[in-house]
Amino acid sequence: MSEYAPLVMMLLIAGVFAGALPVVSALLGRSRPSERKLLPYECGIIPEQEAIGPVSVKFGVTAMLFLLFDVEVIFFYPWAAAFGQMGLFALLEMLLFMAILLVGYLYVWKRGAFEWEL
Question: Residue 98 belongs to a domain with what CATH number?
Fold first, then answer.
């Protein structure tokens, strides 16, 4: 159990620090809200009208799918760098990984996640 002591200490210090910063900021910081400060920030442009309506959920789903497949593809780089030392086993493992990715890709495609109609 003693080998976990540094990890537990680090987690405790990080937790205390993360909890203390917002409290100290709220206590010591000055709050002077004004009409201009409370306006939504739109790339430096003052908004002329309210938002027309809610953003489609499709955009969020597409973004998450992009991140999901993008992060999974990152695993190809270390595999390619170490492929010479790993041999046939690494090739079979990567083919299995690619098959799983393909099944996921086909599933979301079949569900219509890549359709752009609103």
Answer: 1.20.58
